[in-house]
Amino acid sequence: MTEFELIRRYFARQPITRSDVAAGIGDDAALLRLPPGQQLAVTSDLLVSGVHFFADVDPISLGHKALAVNLSDLAAMGAEPAWFMLNLSLPEINADWLDGFCQGLFNLAREFNVQLVGGDTTRGPLVIGIEAHGFVPETSALRRSGAKVGDKIYVTGNLGDAAFALQHCLGKQQFSESDADILAKKLHRPTPRVREGMALRGLAHSAIDISDGLLADLGHILDMSHVGARIFLERMPLSTLGRKYLKEAGWETILAGGDDYELCFTVPSQNIAALEKLNLNFHCIGEIEAQPGLRIVDESGQAYHPLKMGHDHFAKLE
Ligand code: ADP
Ligand code: MG
Questions:
Q1: CA-angle at 80, arms to 257 and 214, nearest 5°
Q2: What is the pTM of this model?
Q3: Spatial contact of 25 and 12, defined as CB atoms under 8 Å apart
């Protein structure tokens, strides 16, 4: 199969065709129409085999996750996803692998009405780069830098399940097979919180998606907003399995494990009634304070000091 046949067979046929795509795959560049009054939010993520995923991971999950992590970044900006580009480096043309990858990729694309509009394909080590584009009305984007003293801090969904699953994959923690399957879904098939992010426009002062662990990512909001915070362990939203394995794994896995792809955001008190009316799944975990730094309060009201703050790709190089 040539490169062109591969593109035609796997990527040119797709479930979504949007009216704002004047030219998608097939020319030297895509031609796209940005609606008036909207800004374009652009983000990209690179997934490298052996670094970000296990080489033998199920290709359906990989296709899903490669797009999901990008949609999660758009969600954190309050943007509505529209288009994406796919840059692929493949060691070989494996039809089964490509069928699975496209299934995971395009199922999620259909769910969020995003169209693949181009990319590049080359032979090499397995690397997947996706760039996603979304719309956000001028001045409505959710930024990391907007948190204000007195804001309440919220997270969507549950924290820690993906980190537990990773511990299991690495052989560091044992779960029953059925528990491991449930947790693995959170690691391999995260749900980007796109609806939540868009609903937070005009309500949240700041937002970020939790990819490297709550502590690291909330830390970015604090740094960029020049504020501090206090959070409470007893308020952390954990799943039933999260509660079950908490003792064994410890709070660090939940707070610093990463791969949650939930949103962390801050809301001023005057917007909390409107926030609660949204009826979305989120929990208040603490409050923004003037004093710099992050203070963590344990279940008995004492200060909790984590050993680890979160995932940093270059941390080991220092
Ligand atoms: P060029 O050599 O001009 O960069 P290519 O031959 O690489 O063009 O690509 C031809 C068309 O196929 C372009 O529209 C490009 O965006 C698209 N394309 C290439 N690879 C991918 C891919 N992995 N996913 C989606 N579209 C792709
Ligand atoms: Mg090319």
A1: 15
A2: 0.94
A3: yes
